[in-house]
Design brief:
alpha/beta; about 675 residues; 5-stranded parallel β-sheet
Length: about 675
C-alpha cells in the first residue's frame, strides 16, 4: 500500500514508514524522515498520509514547509519540532453539537423558561457574583455536549498549562501569566523554573512607596508644589484597562473620598484634540506624567510623551522632567535617555500581554496615585478570587468556562457574529470598550494555533453601552433585526442613591426594572396572537411582532467597588481565554495590528517630505495618492525660520510657544 501526496511525484511505502516508526534504531528514524519529507515538501499531505502520521505521533508542518515529528522515542530531530493538533471541528464532540442544533432550533425560549428545574440549574453563584444563563438557547443536554467539547479540547489541561507558566503563546514563545499579577505574596506561580510572585510584589511594594509619597506630599514637583494631577500616557491595553477601572471607581463613595482633590487623565490618541482634552485646566507645576510603554518605542505613546515633556519643560525647564515624569517600562536605557530617572521606572514582564496588563504597573501606578494603593490591592484581590475559581472549580460550575462555552455555541453553531455588553450601571460605561479589545484582539483570528485556516467561525464583534442609553440607540436591532446575544450586568446596591418623594420607585430601581424587563423581552418576544388580542390593527401587526428566542444572560453584582470590579474583569478575561482554548487559536498574540502600522511608516516619510520640502507624493496607488494630495492641499507647509513647539492655544496661554497665525499647524 502506498501513501501518496497529490502535488508530489513520489509515494511513500506505508511498510517503510511503519517499520521505521516501530524501530529502535536512529538509522530507521532518519530513513523515515528522509523518505516521507522528500515526498511532501511544498505539498499538502493527503488525508490518508495525515491520518497515518497522526497515529504514529507524526504530523506535517505544511505552513512551515517541513515535516514535524513529536516526541518520537528514537528520533533526535524531534527535539526541535512541535506536533499539530486536530482541529476541534474534526472531533466527535463538535459533530454531536452540530447534530444537536437541529433539535434546539425546534425549541423556543418561552417554552424552555417554563422548566423550573432547567432554570434552577442554569443559575450559578460564586463569591457574591450571580450568573443566570437560563435565557440562552440551551438545554441540560446542550450543556453536557458543550462540556464534552471542553474535554475534547483539553480545556482543563490548557488552563493548567497557563497557570503553570508554560509558553502557551507559541507564536511569540511566551508564557501567559497575568494571573500572577494579582496573586497573594504566599502563592507560587512559576515561569521558566522561577517563582515570579516575589518579583510582582517587589514592583507592587515600589508602587505603594512611590504613590504614598506623592499622595502625602513627600514627593513634590520642581517648584515645591504637591503633584495633584496625573496624566497617564498609553494606548491599547495601556489605556483601555486603566480607564475602565478608573471610571468604575470614581463615583464609588469610598474611592471618591480617597481621591478628593486629585485628578487623573488619560492620553492615548496622537490626535492633538486628545492632547488638548488631557491638558485642559492643568498646570505644569502640579502635574505628574506617567509614560506607559514596555519597550519605550511605541510610536503614538512616545510622540505624546515628547509632547508632554515639551509642555512641562516650556514652563519649568529641562530639569523638571525627573520630578514630573515617571515611566512604566522595562527599557531603562531609553527611559534614562528620555530624561526620566530609571529609579522612577516600574517594570512589567513579557508574560503580560498589553490587553491583560491593567493589574500590572500599567494600571496600578495611575490608579494608586488617584485612589491609594489600598484600593488597587482590593481590585487585585477581586480578580484573584475569580482566578482561583477558574483554576480550581469543576467545569460545570466554573463561571468563565460556562460563559466561554456558551459564546462558542452562539458563534460557531448559531452563527451569531456579535455580542452586546449591556451594563445597567453608568460607572461601567468603559467596560465594553475594554472587553472589545480583550476579546477581539485575542480571538479575532482566522487560523489555528498551528497555522491552519479555520473551517468554522471564531471570534465575535463586541460592543455595548450602559442601560438605559442603549435602549434608545441600538436595541431596535437586537429586538427585531439581527440576533445578538446580550450580557446584562446589574448592580444590587448602587454607588449613588436618588429617591424622590412621590415617585413609585427610586432612580436605581427604575434602572433595574429595565434590566429585568429587557432580558425577558428578548426571550419571549410578542406574538401576532397577543397583538390581535390587544386590538392592534392588522397592518401594524408585522411591525409590532417580536420573534423573541433571542439569547442573553444576566449577571448580578452585590455592589460596584474595587473588589467586584476586579471580579468582573477576571470573569471576562478568562471567558475570552476559554473561547480561544476551545477554538484552538492563540488568544495571546496580535499580529493583525502590525501591517497597518508598518505601512504608516511609508506614509509618515512621504508626509514629512511633502510638508517640509514640497516634494510630490509618490509610491502609492492612485486612490491613496489622490487622498494624500487632497489632505496636503488643505495644510500649511511647515517652513519656519526656526523650529517651534506648537500647543493648542486655548490650553496653553501665552505667546511664547505659538507660531505666527499664517504658519500655525493645522
Amino acid at each position: 500500500m502506498l501513501l501518496h501526496t497529490p502535488a508530489a511525484s513520489s509515494s511513500v511505502p506505508i511498510a517503510t514508514a511503519a517499520a521505521a516508526s516501530s524501530s529502535t534504531s536512529q538509522e530507521s528514524c532518519h530513513r523515515l524522515f528522509a523518505s516521507v519529507s522528500s515526498s511532501v515538501f511544498s505539498a499538502s499531505p493527503s488525508p490518508v498520509l495525515r491520518r497515518f502520521l497522526n497515529t504514529q505521533q507524526l504530523s506535517l508542518g505544511v505552513g512551515q514547509q517541513h515535516l514535524r515529528i513529536a516526541h518520537h522515542p528514537v528520533c533526535p530531530m524531534a527535539t526541535a519540532v512541535v506536533s499539530k493538533s486536530a482541529l476541534i471541528s474534526e472531533t466527535p464532540a463538535w459533530n454531536s453539537l452540530k447534530n444537536h442544533l437541529g433539535h434546539i432550533n425546534k425549541t423556543h425560549l418561552r417554552d424552555l423558561l417554563k422548566d423550573k428545574d432547567r432554570c434552577e440549574g442554569m443559575i450559578k453563584e460564586y463569591d457574591g457574583v450571580v450568573v443566570d444563563f437560563s435565557r440562552q438557547r440551551v438545554t441540560h443536554e446542550t450543556l453536557e455536549k458543550l462540556l464534552a467539547l471542553a474535554k475534547e479540547a483539553k480545556l482543563k489541561e490548557k488552563i493548567e498549562s497557563m497557570f503553570n507558566g508554560e509558553h502557551i503563546n507559541k507564536t511569540e514563545g511566551r508564557a501567559v501569566l497575568h494571573v500572577a499579577l494579582r496573586a497573594p505574596r504566599y502563592e507560587q506561580i512559576s515561569c521558566d523554573g522561577k517563582n515570579v510572585v516575589p518579583d510582582v510584589w517587589e514592583v507592587l511594594d515600589k508602587i505603594k512607596d512611590f504613590t504614598d509619597r506623592v499622595r502625602n506630599g513627600t514627593w513634590v514637583g520642581v517648584t515645591g508644589k504637591p503633584l495633584t494631577d496625573v496624566v497617564a500616557i498609553g494606548i491599547g491595553g495601556s489605556f483601555l484597562g486603566p480607564l475602565f477601572v478608573h471610571t468604575a471607581l470614581q463615583t464609588e463613595p469610598g474611592t471618591a473620598k480617597s481621591s478628593k482633590g486629585r485628578r487623573l487623565r488619560f492620553l492615548s490618541n496622537v490626535d492633538p484634540v486628545d492632547v488638548a482634552c488631557a491638558l485642559n485646566g492643568l498646570e505644569q507645576e502640579t502635574t505628574l506624567v506617567v509614560v506607559v510603554s514596555k519597550t519605550f518605542t511605541t510610536a503614538e505613546t512616545m510622540l505624546n510623551a515628547r509632547t508632554l515633556r515639551a509642555w512641562i519643560t516650556s514652563a519649568l525647564g529641562s530639569e523638571a522632567v525627573s520630578k514630573h515624569m515617571i515611566a512604566v517600562s522595562t527599557n531603562l536605557k531609553l527611559v534614562k535617555e528620555f530624561g526620566i530617572d530609571p529609579a522612577n521606572a516600574f517594570a512589567f514582564w513579557d508574560w503580560v500581554g498589553g490587553r491583560y496588563s491593567v493589574c500590572s504597573a500599567v494600571g496600578a501606578v495611575p490608579l494608586a496615585l488617584q485612589y491609594g494603593f489600598e484600593t488597587v490591592q482590593k481590585f487585585l484581590e477581586g480578580a484573584w478570587s475569580i482566578d482561583k475559581h477558574y483554576h480550581n472549580a469543576p467545569l460545570e460550575e466554573n463561571l468563565p468556562v460556562l460563559l466561554g462555552l456558551l459564546t462558542v455555541w452562539n458563534v460557531s453553531f448559531h452563527g451569531c457574529s456579535a455580542m452586546a455588553i449591556l451594563p445597567y450601571c453608568q460607572a461601567l460605561q468603559k467596560l465594553a470598550p475594554h472587553i472589545q479589545q480583550v476579546s477581539m484582539e485575542s480571538n479575532g483570528k482566522g487560523v489555528s494555533i498551528d497555522g491552519e485556516t479555520l473551517p468554522y467561525e471564531a471570534g465575535e464583534i463586541d460592543f455595548g453601552e450602559p442601560g438605559t442609553n442603549g435602549q434608545h440607540s441600538f436595541y431596535q436591532l437586537i429586538h427585531q433585526g439581527r440576533v445578538v446575544p446580550c450580557d446584562f450586568i446589574g448592580i444590587i446596591k448602587s454607588q449613588q442613591s436618588v429617591y424622590l418623594k412621590g415617585e413609585i420607585v427610586s432612580n436605581h430601581d427604575e434602572l433595574m426594572c429595565n434590566f429585568f424587563a429587557q432580558a425577558d423581552a428578548l426571550a419571549y418576544g410578542k406574538t401576532r396572537e397577543e397583538l390581535r388580542a390587544e386590538g392592534v390593527p392588522d397592518y401594524l401587526i408585522p411591525h409590532k411582532t417580536f420573534t423573541g428566542n433571542r439569547p442573553s444572560l444576566s449577571m448580578l453584582l452585590p455592589t460596584l467597588d474595587a473588589y467586584t470590579t476586579g471580579q468582573l474583569l477576571s470573569i471576562y478575561e478568562h471567558r475570552v481565554a476559554t473561547m480561544g482554548f476551545i477554538w484552538g487559536i492563540n488568544s495571546f498574540d496580535q499580529w493583525g495590528v502590525e501591517l497597518g502600522k508598518s505601512l504608516a511608516t511609508r506614509v509618515r516619510t512621504q508626509m514629512n517630505a511633502a510638508r517640509t520640502k514640497g516634494e510630490p507624493v509618490q509610491g502609492f496607488n492612485y486612490s491613496t495618492t489622490t487622498l494624500l494630495n487632497r489632505y496636503l492641499k488643505g495644510k500649511t507647509q511647515l517652513l519656519y525660520p526656526e523650529p517651534h513647539d506648537v500647543f493648542p492655544s486655548d490650553i496653553i496661554p501665552g505667546t511664547d510657544n505659538i507660531v505666527p497665525t499664517e504658519k500655525v499647524e493645522q
